[in-house]
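Regression check, shikimate-3-phosphate case 461:
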Amino acid sequence: MKRVEIKRARSLKGEITPPPDKSISHRAVMLAALADGKSIVRNPLMAEDPVSTMNAMRMLGVEITEARNQKSEIKSNSELPWVVDRTPNSELIIHGKGLYGLKEPLDVINCGNSGTTVRLLSGILAGNPFFSVLNGDDSLKQRPMARVINPLKEMGADISGRGNDGYLPAAIKGRKLKAINYNMPVASAQVKSCLILAGLYAGGLTVITEPQRSRDHTERMLKSMGADIEVDGLTIRVRGYPPMSPLIKGGIEGGLNPLDVTVPADFSSAAFFIAAVLIVPDSEILIKNVCINPTRTGMLEVIKDMGGIVRLENIRDVSGEPVADIHCKSADALKAVKMDKDIMPSLIDEFPILCVLAAQADGLTEIRGAEELRVKESDRIKAMATELRKMGVELEEYPDGIAIKGGVQLKGAEVESYNDHRIAMSLAIAGLAADGTTTIYNASCVDISFPGFFEMLKGLI
Ligand code: S3P
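Current build output:
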C-alpha cells in the first residue's frame, strides 16, 4: 500500500489531459457488447474500475481486443516543455453479441470496487436467460443493492442478494421482464441506467422518473445506437426488444447498432486540478479535452459563486458529448457558498474536493442534501470531516452533509484515504496548500479511476 508525501506548492503551471471518462468507458464497453456487430471504443479509461467491466463482459463471452492507436484524436500536440500527457492512446475492438448473445459465466463475476459495473450489469443480466452471481471487494459488498434489486423485481426479475436483498453477493436467474413505470426515490445514474438496460429486455415501454437529473451518458449512447429512448424532463422512456419466444432463446426483432466512440477526459478527474489551481497562488493551467456534459459540471457553478474564474474554451462535440478545454487561474479570494440537494447529482463525485475548496473559502460553506455520499466507495462525509480536522479545519458533520469554516491555513498531517480514490486525490490537493508535509496513507487506490495521478500532479509543480 503506497504512502505518498505532499509538500506545499508555490505555483502550478502547464497543460494536461486527464484520463478518459470513467462513466462513459463503462457504458461504451457494456453497450458495445450488446450491439449487433463490431464496435470501436477509442481512448477508453484503462483503470481498475472499467477493467472490472471489461473482465465481466469477457466472462459473459464477449471478445474484447485492445490496440494501440497512434492516430488517436485525443493527443496533446503542444510543444510546451511542461506538457504532461499520459493519455494511453489505445482503442478497444468489441465484438458485440447482440442483446441475447451473452453466455452464462463459469464463475462468480467479481466487480471489484465498481458500483457502476455491478448496478448496470444487474439490469442486463436480469433479462438474459442464464444464472449469474455478482460480487465485489469489501467496499462494494457494503454498498446498497436494494435500490436496483427492488425495481428489478417489480419488472419480474429473479434476483436476490445477501442481507434480505440489500447487498452483494447477488444471484440472478435471467428471464423475460415486463415494463414498469418507476419513480426513483434517489437520484442515481447507476440505478437509472440499470433500469434502462433492463427496459431493453422488457415488453413495452419502461418509464423511469428521477427526482433530480443525474448523468445521462447511457441515454445519449443508446440513442446513438438506434434504441427507442426518449428523455422528457426528468422522465425517460425506453421501448424494449423482448424475446420472441417465451423461453427466451433469442430471436428478437431489431437490436442495437455498433458504436464508434471517442471517450473524452473525465471532468471528475479534471476537478482535482481545477481546485488545485484555485487554491495554489500564482497558478495557471489548461486542462484539455474534458467532457463538460451539464449533468456533470455542477462544480463549475459552485466555483463561479465562490468567485473563482474558470474559462471553457474550444467547446465542441465528441461522440455526442460536449467537450472543452478548461482554462483555470488562481483565485485571489474564494468566498463560502451553500449547496443543497438540487445541485448534488451534478457534482456528486466532486464532494470531497469541494470540501477542500470550502476549507480555503472565506466564511461558512454548507453542503446539505448529500446523504448519498455516505454510501460511496467510503462514507465520504465522515472521511473528509475526519481528515480535514486533522489538517486544522473547523467543521460540523450532519447526517446529510457538512458545514466547513473556511479561510484557514491548512496544516500538513498524516491522513488516510479509506481506500477511496477520490478521498486520496482530494487530500493530496489539500496538501498543496498546507504548511509542512501531508502524508497520505493507502494512496494506491487512485488507480481505480486515475492511474498516474501523482505523476501528473508532480509535472505541474
Ligand atoms: C456513476 C454514477 C454516480 C457516481 C459514480 C459513477 C455512473 O453514482 O457517483 O461514481 O457512472 O453512473 P450514483 O448514480 O449512484 O449517484
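Comparison notes: Residues 179 and 206 are 5 Å apart (CA to CA). The two ends are 24 Å apart (CA to CA). No diff flagged against the previous build.
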